[in-house]
Sequence to fold (403 residues):
Amino acid sequence: MPNTEPANGCPARGGGSEHPASDEVLGFPFAPAGSPLSLPPIYDELRRERPVCRVRLPTGAHAWLVTTWADARFVLSDPRFSKAAMTRPDAPKARPGELPRGVLFTTDPPEHTRLRALLSRALTTRRILSLRPRMVAYADHLIERMTPPADLVSSFAAPLAMRATCDLLGVPVSDQEQFAAWSETVLAVDGRSSGDVERAQRELFAYIGGLVETRTGNPGNDLVSDLLRHASPEPVVGLVATLLVTGYETMAAGVTNSVLTLLAAHGKLLPDLDSDALEELFRFAAFGDALRSRRALRDVRVGPVLVRAGDLVMVSTASANRDPSVFGDADMFLPTRCPNPHVAFGRGVHYCAGASLARTQLRIALSRLAYRLPGLSLATPLADITLRPGGSESPPERLLVRW
Fold:
């Protein structure tokens, strides 16, 4: 049985404080594991010996990398670690390009509180459920067009994710391919040039600005129109950009990684995915280096080290979700795992505002595949499946399946 929070409901701060700090700076991202279901093996060593360590990012910046569950929850929920401070001119760069200011993922309270309340007002349970019939229909349409062996990424996961995200926002079908390209570039953490990232951001925000302007004079039944009923165009542009980029990337990777997990670790898809299995997929099926970043506003002790004001701190939620001090058999997919205090959606004020939407979308996608293709299996040996480098979610480049 996995360990849960202490009796007072609060995680122990600095869970690795007994370990000595080291001055060695590690190159990041780390070399991948031999299996796509495994994290880079260095994470096991870091959680034991150097739970908070210095890393050098592809941008050349240095950062603190947090790898344990307790320290991850501490950093993600403590207000001394800021998202807004990462947009300041002197901030170390976690990824290429300048971060956009004033959007949901680069603000702190009280601005973040205002933006999140605005989004919650429009992204209701009723709206999420209203998307279900169209998503089911489009999932079935994509499945009908697949012929074995098929690449699940290009033939199902990516187009379904983009269609679902654009349906929510009222984006024309003709523009969805361009949106996918913008999203992948904006979220890249690899060696892409700052110019490429900033150009994609400008084009994305310009397009959304035009979409918002159109909806201002001609509202519809989409989320953009709902947001405009309660706010001026400027914050709506930022909210839509956040939803479009993170919604597409998260869902496309989530579907792909979940299918890979179920077929490789469980042997089959689950037609009736219950809540425990769904949460275990969110815990387990994040491969590579799933990260959330903050900047320290003042000196703060995290585990064995003193993080200085202005330092960049990156939380590996993937590593935290495999912490054996919290999750029994942490490197195994256990669909009946309960409780499951994973941090896949973050924690604190920046807990993912689209978590309910993500759960609904993943459940629909997996249930349609299980129902329509009950004999689905991998068409490539597990050792030959490679993860896409440089993305925030690290799904496979391709995932060939047959039935």
In short: Confidence is low (pLDDT under 50) at residues 1-21. The radius of gyration is 21 Å. The first strand starts at residue 25 and ends at 27. The first helix runs from residue 42 to 49.
